[in-house]
Amino acid sequence: MSTEEKDHSSTEGIQNALFIIKIGGNIIDNPGALETFLADFSKIQAAKILIHGGGKIATKIGAQLGIESKYVDGRRITDDETIDLVTMVYGGLANKKIVAQLQALGTNAIGLTGADANIIPAKKRPVKTIDYGWVGDIETTGIQYSTVHFFLQNGITPVFAPLTHDGNGHILNTNADTIASSLAVALSALFNVRLIYCFEKKGVLEDVDNDASVIRKLDRTYYQQLKEEKKLFEGILPKIDNAFAAIDAGVAQVLIGDARDLIKNTTNDNEGTLIY
After folding, report:
1. What does the radius of gyration of the chain's CA atoms come to, in whole angstroms?
2. Looking at the DSSP assignment, which residues form a beta bridge with residue 199?
């Protein structure tokens, strides 16, 4: 990697930084891991936004209520009963528990969905071979990022549940990774954004069988080289491709790493993989 590339990948000296951090079910479903993560998240002094997935809580509560969870290729089918369930669990139970814990840690958080203040409008996914039900695809150009900016300017940390809305009164179940990426792209007009995906591994591995083989910095040239050499696990490729798509749309940096390394991953001395 050249000196110029190293300088480009550094956050040192960047003004107006914003960290947009996404956590998934592996943290949401583990109270101890969530408590540790939120304690670290609260220590971040820069502007920050948290987006959380749904975890297995909706499936568990749905079973108690007699609502069967249906999946196709690992994706939840969100029918009329299920959208009510995930709205209650994601936008209510999971989101407000996180907000309450953050308040206890001194972070003035506000729990949000995409419907609140019309922040994230979306469209119901069209039916092709599969009808996913009330699942939303985000209209990136319609994101009301000025509202999010208002919260940040006033020392309030937004915490987004994985829900959007269609403008016609319907809540839509929406992929949390996509919400994080869409917010990062929209807010890159106002901030120098580092989008952080908290991942099951320490970062992108050069050798999938060696957890110590984390690639610390990854630019497009090195990525193409690794792909040609077939060194990367195929399952990580879509996540990296999406990271470069976010960068092409204005996001300064994307980082993939372990939630337990959050503090270091908001610095130049990152433990995870910084993509730029």
Report:
1. 18
2. 258
The strand pair at 122-124 and 136-138 is best described as antiparallel
Domain coordinates in residue numbering, the chain: 16-275
Cβ–Cβ contacts within 10 Å for residue 14, how many? Answer: 14
Establish whether 173 is an annotated binding residue: yes
Does the annotation flag 111 for ligand binding? no
Are 163 and 86 within 8 A, CB to CB?
Answer: yes
CATH no. of 16-275 = 3.40.1160.10
Q: What's the Cα-to-Cα distance from 68 to each of 39, 76, 77, 135, rounded to whole Å?
A: 35, 11, 10, 17
Angle at 96 between CA 92 and CA 97, to 5 degrees: 115
235 is in an annotated binding site: no
Q: State how far the Cα of 237 lies from the Cα of 176, in Å rounded to an integer.
A: 18
Per-residue confidence in pLDDT tens, the chain, 276 aa: 333 333 344 444 457 899 999 999 999 999 999 999 999 999 999 999 999 999 899 999 999 999 998 888 878 899 999 999 999 999 999 999 999 999 999 999 999 999 999 999 999 999 989 999 999 999 888 999 999 999 999 999 999 999 999 999 999 999 999 999 999 999 999 999 999 999 889 999 998 889 999 999 999 999 999 999 988 988 899 889 999 999 999 999 999 999 999 999 999 899 999 999
Structure tokens at 21: 């951090």
- The answer to whether the annotation marks 91 as part of a ligand binding site is no
Instruction: Specify whether the CB–CB gap between 190 and 201 falls below 8 A.
Output: no
Q: Token pair of 25, please?
A: 């079910």
Q: Please enumerate in sequence order all residues whose Cβ is within 8 A of that of 38, keeping only pairs 6 or more positions apart, or say none.
A: 98, 101, 102, 105
Answer yes or no: are the C-beta atoms of 91 and 113 closer than 8 Å: yes
